[in-house]
Amino acid sequence: MKPRIQSTKFGAITVGGEELPHDVVILPNGTVRKRRKKLSKAVYGTSHTISLAEAEHVYDQARHPERLIIGTGQNGMVHLSPEADSFLEENGCAVLLAPTPEAIEPWNAAKGNVAGLFHVTC
């Protein structure tokens, strides 16, 4: 069962009643994992650009979701690299990018094979 997100603030997100002090990936089966930002930092020097490697990792971990909801941070700083965007599009994975506080409602309302990636700082 997909866990609900209750809230977010700078540096944390509350998922399933538990406040987590780091970025998270939520898989369609409800598993919540710490985001592997190093996959993007290795390429871009920042976690604000999601690399192809990170997009592939999330897509594979989530077992090929139909949709990926990305919380782009409290101020909306995160974006997909062109390669990551192309990869997800080519694999039929629709993407919603929104500042993390605005991504909570679509996440909580989402049905079906949906994964989430939520950045909790800028």
What attributes does this structure have?
single chain; 122 residues; alpha/beta; Hypothetical Protein Mth938, Chain: A; five-stranded mixed β-sheet; three-stranded antiparallel β-sheet; 10 strands; 30% helix
Describe the fold and architecture.
With 122 residues, this protein is of the alpha/beta class. It has a single domain, classed as Hypothetical Protein Mth938, Chain: A, CATH 3.40.1230. 30% of the residues lie in helices and 32% in strands. The chain is built from four helices and ten strands. The protein has a five-stranded mixed β-sheet with strand order 5-4-10-7-9, with helices on both faces. Helix 2 runs parallel beside helix 3. The longest helix has 10 residues, at 52-61. It is globular, with a radius of gyration of 13 Å.
Question: What is the CATH-assigned architecture?
Answer: 3-Layer(aba) Sandwich
**Shape label:** globular
Mean pLDDT: 97
Structural class: alpha/beta
Strand order of the largest sheet: 5-4-10-7-9
CATH topology: Hypothetical Protein Mth938, Chain: A
The gist of it:
This protein has 122 residues and is of the alpha/beta class.
Please render the helix and strand layout as text.
Blueprint: E1 5-9, E2 12-15, E3 18-20, E4 24-26, E5 32-34, H1 38-44, E6 49-50, H2 52-61, E7 67-72, E8 79-80, H3 82-90, E9 94-98, H4 100-109, E10 114-119
Parallel strand pairs: 6-8, 7-9, 7-10
Antiparallel strand pairs: 1-2, 2-3, 4-5, 4-10
Helix pairs in contact: 2-3
